[in-house]
Design a protein that fits this description.
With 345 residues, the protein is α+β, with helices and mostly antiparallel strands. It has 10 helices and 6 strands; from the N terminus they run ααααααααααββββββ. Strands 1-6-2-3-4-5 form a 6-stranded antiparallel β-sheet.
Amino acid sequence: MASHRRPKQPSRARVTVLTTAAAAAVVLSAQGANAAPSEKPSKDEVKAKVDKLYEQAEQATEHYNGAKEKQEKLQKEISTIQDDVARGQEELNKLRDGMGSMATAQYRSGGIDPSVQLFLSSNPDDYLDKASTLDQLSSQQVEALKKIQDKQRELAQERAEAADKLKDLASTRTELGKKKKEVQSKLAEAQKLLNSMTAKEKAAMAAQQERASRASAARVSLGLHLGGGRASAAFSAAQSQIGKPYVYGATGPSSFDCSGLTSWAYAQAGVSIPRTSEQQANIGTRITSVNDLQVGDLVFFFNDIHHVALYAGNGQVLHAPRTGTVVRYESMSTIGGPFMFGVRV
């Protein structure tokens, strides 16, 4: 016969726990439904982040420029040394040929001098240092052997120097690759932020920058006094490049980075200045006060001197600012970093 047991009722405590849990779930669900999604950063916040990334990219760019310049210099030095070694080897071969001709003449006249025979079968360094051997040689033979010895030592030194520079070149190329990746990474991150903006926000940002550039150009026209000399000629050359795009590592004439523009401009004035902002900061006469600056002076910004511009007068500069911009006038107060000093070339 089937058993008809009454179902076991849940305890009061268990009912209370289940009820509480269900209520909490409902509350959490309601909170989740009512929670506001995370707010999108404002245009100004995006601009601030992008400007910071561009600043970091410019820092890396100047280090990249320095490594690139060092690489080119090392390549030229290595090429020169290798050419010197090749010519030196030819000279050494001629000296040895001359010594061989001397031995041949001796043989024909009655036999080879034992010291010359020794030379022909071993390194002259082994016996040139021995006075007893030198006594057995004629003055002509001694002179020929010393020339060979000097040339051998010179070639050994040049080959060692070339080997050291080749090692330096390899490490410089590694550094160059790292800095290039760093620049590209910062630029890609900045572009990602810019892509998150709406077309309207981008247009508003561009319009704001354009207004600032026009205002700066107007202030320049009010206070611009071009005199003669190299600085004025360099400034005029830079003016002709207004509107050219900023490209990291570029030295013109189709695009520039900050130090690429200043070095190009002075080159047009017949003056060769170093490639990077850090190097340019160490030439000429240093000027600590903005009030003492003249048009065409180099002006440097940020504590690590990673940005350089040309002074345009009336508190304005002419420069290649950063990626996404063009060569333009800008107020010194809006560069983004403190004015450190100027340099009169």
